[in-house]
Amino acid sequence: MRTAxxxxxxxxxxxxxxxxxxxxSDAAARAKAAWSAHDPQALVGQSSNIVLQIPGAxxxxxxxxxxAVELLRRYFRPAEERGLDxxxxxxxxxxKGFVELARHYVVAGTAELRRExxxxxxxxxxREWRLVELRSAP
Length: 138
Description:
Order of helices and strands: HHHEEHEEEE
Shape: globular
Number of strands: 6
Structural class: alpha+beta
């Protein structure tokens, strides 16, 4: 009985692998992959409310997850990605960070290459970096 107790105690001391995005760099890589795939559900992840400042979204208040996903889906629809680079990853204070992406794309049916900078704000909730804000700048 004592051996079993010691074995269970030892297991309790082992580190528990983190779910989701363990680091802000992991969150940046997932955001880049989700944006490149035009997958708004993967981009939003488990976030419950998000402030979106993109064309077609009212930036005045946070949106619930389903609304944010739908607006992002509409925003992705006419675009064809030509390049997406992570240009900055910073934790500005404990539990708060941001990721900057440089996006190159064309509107479907055109050849004009457009550029956009995306700023993604994250909060560390438990062991997961969750998207809380997305801003677009030309």
